[in-house]
TrEMBL record:
It comes from Sphaerochaeta halotolerans. Keywords: CBS domain, GMP biosynthesis, Metal-binding, NAD, Oxidoreductase, Potassium, Purine biosynthesis. One of its GO terms (biological process) is GTP biosynthetic process. NAD(+) binds at D260, S261, S262, G311, I312, G313. PROSITE patterns: CBS, IMP_DH_GMP_RED. The keyword Metal-binding applies. Its EC number is 1.1.1.205. It catalyses: IMP + NAD(+) + H2O = XMP + NADH + H(+). Gene3D superfamilies: Aldolase class I. Belongs to the IMPDH/GMPR family. The lineage of its organism: Bacteria, Pseudomonadati, Spirochaetota, Spirochaetia, Spirochaetales. It is an enzyme of class 1 (oxidoreductase). This is IMP dehydrogenase.
Length: 501
């Protein structure tokens, strides 16, 4: 066996040494913008995050409410993949549809009507989406739906025929084309949907019909013109059913995918990435992982990953290290993979962002992870504590808690995540079912954490993440100085404070 000379270390074993901060170095000047997917030297990544935060691909963390709340703050959630394809896609499309708030319309146009007719009707009805039927009535065959997204009055001549404006913008298989608007509306009500995607014979999306009472009036429909007002959302996939799951998620509007697995250095991931890239080229962005060393990173980079997740066995609910004796201290893993990412960029001119996944307990661990080279972070326990996580808030011995369980626990039964192609009956648990202290709304907590990150970055003289990575100086701390770092030799008045951290 090969023996590494250095022990593998965790975040709590390091501290940042402050650097010079100029008067420019104030939190308000700090940008936390970061790339989510790979890009070539000199080019911009096609997806960037305004904050380096993603929520874990877990049943107990990333549902619709989490996705909306985190996207609103500038991060992204990966909707958990340990559920049937249909329900995962429904979650994704509801997140995508929500903020745009398109309304369906019973105000019909014919395809030969023009943009000025559309504008007149839109003004009259206040609708941002208008159905186009064959004969202009709701019982006529539905020809398409024109949404505000297609409507660019300043750039489009007013006599443009409507049919030229009709473009699909998302997809989910529910209804075949050829139905009437009233049938579409009935179906929406019957199935309690917000929207009904209409597909052709080959299941390609033609357009969407939206629910009548869908409220677009809170947003100015004209602002919906640059996609920016739609929430961003990611989705987890696995190396088993990807040939069905990926097309469905793409069609539902997922912005980015990520293979959710405890072990990324595997041919299964290579096959999955290759298939996705063959089918979609660069159109579909997909992350892979998890790895903990240079070899794993290079393998996934060469296989086509758009980002690589780092971390095995460090998750708060994870017992992989205890169960199988594999894993690596998160700090050591991150430092090695970040170095490999930088070398790869130097040699190949392609920057592949890395994500530090799992094991972040204290807010300063976030800054450490970024300083050690992470482009963004994935957190489970942290987000599970908030109102927006999909789990129950329960009272345990007088304190409010939220439930939080691992994907490898018997509760989640996400065996695909750990699957090596063996006998399913011999699967064993690698995660636990637990409680975490309830912490209130995401926004307040996240803002506080981000403020701590920005403040520390200023102490290191860094105004953005890449500057932090270049300027940061880290020191390993002895066990005695770890004790010195907390409150010590005093009697704490409020012992609850330790829980709130
Ligand atoms: P944490 O933020 O709670 O410390 O860790 C969350 C991460 O733990 C997830 O993103 C995932 O990589 C990992 N995870 C999820 N379930 C398990 C498990 O059951 C697990 N073992 O290790």
């Amino acid at each position: 066996a090969y023996l590494y000379e250095e022990p593998s270390r965790t975040f709590s074993e390091y501290l940042l040494i402050p650097g010079y901060s100029s008067t420019e170095c104030i939190p308000v000047n700090v940008s936390l913008k970061t790339p989510l997917v790979k890009f070539k030297k000199g080019e911009e990544p096609s997806i960037t995050l305004n904050i380096p935060m993603t929520s874990a691909i877990m049943q107990s963390v990333s549902g619709e409410a989490m996705a909306k709340a985190l996207s609103r703050e500038g991060g992204i959630s990966f909707i958990y993949g340990s559920q049937p394809i249909g329900s995962q896609c429904a979650m994704v499309s509801r997140v995508k549809a929500f903020k745009a708030g398109f309304v369906p319309s019973d105000s019909n146009l014919r395809s030969e009507d023009t943009l000025s007719d559309l504008i007149a009707l839109k003004k009259k009805k206040g609708h941002s989406t208008i159905a186009v039927t064959e004969d202009g009535t709701s019982s006529g065959k539905l020809l398409g739906v024109v949404s505000s997204r297609d409507w660019r009055p300043s750039r489009t001549p007013l006599d443009t025929p409507i049919y030229q404006l009709m473009t699909p913008f998302a997809n989910l298989v529910y209804a075949k084309e050829g139905i009437t608007l009233s049938e579409a509306n009935d179906s929406i009500w019957e199935h309690k949907l917000n929207s009904l995607p209409i597909v052709d014979e080959e299941n390609h999306l033609k357009y969407f019909v939206f629910r009548k009472d869908y409220d677009c009036h809170k947003d100015n429909p004209d602002e919906l013109l640059d996609e920016k007002k739609r929430y961003r959302v990611g989705a987890g996939i696995n190396t088993r059913d990807y040939k069905e799951r990926v097309p469905a998620l793409v069609a539902s509007g997922a912005d980015v995918l990520c293979i959710d697995s405890s072990e990324g250095y595997s041919e299964w991931q290579h096959l999955t990435l290759s298939w996705i890239k063959e089918q979609y080229g660069d159109q579909v962005k997909v992350g892979a992982g998890n790895v903990v060393d240079k070899e794993g990173f290079l393998f996934l980079a060469e296989s086509g990953a758009d980002f690589v997740k780092v971390g095995i066995g460090g998750g708060s609910i994870c017992i992989t290290r205890e169960t199988k004796g594999i894993g690596r201290g998160q700090a050591t893993a991150l430092l090695e993979v970040a170095k490999a990412r930088d070398e790869y960029f130097q040699e190949q001119g392609i920057y592949i962002p890395i994500c530090s996944d799992g094991g972040i307990v204290l807010d300063y661990h976030m800054t450490l992870a970024l300083a050690m080279g992470a482009d963004f972070l994935m957190l489970g326990r942290y987000f599970a504590r908030f109102d927006e996580s999909p789990t129950e808030k329960v009272n345990v011995k007088g304190s409010y808690m939220k439930e939080y369980w691992g994907e490898g626990s018997s509760r989640a039964r996400n065996w695909q995540r750990y699957d090596l192609g063996g006998d399913e009956t011999l699967s064993f648990v690698e995660g636990v079912d637990s409680y975490v202290p309830y912490a209130g709304p995401l926004k307040d907590n996240l803002q506080l954490s981000l403020s701590k990150i920005k403040s520390t970055m200023c102490n290191c003289g860094a105004l953005n993440i890449s500057e932090l990575q270049k300027k940061a100086r880290l020191t390993v701390v002895s066990s005695t100085s770890i004790i010195e770092g907390g409150a010590h030799d005093v009697l704490l008045k409020d012992s609850q404070d330790s829980l709130k951290k």
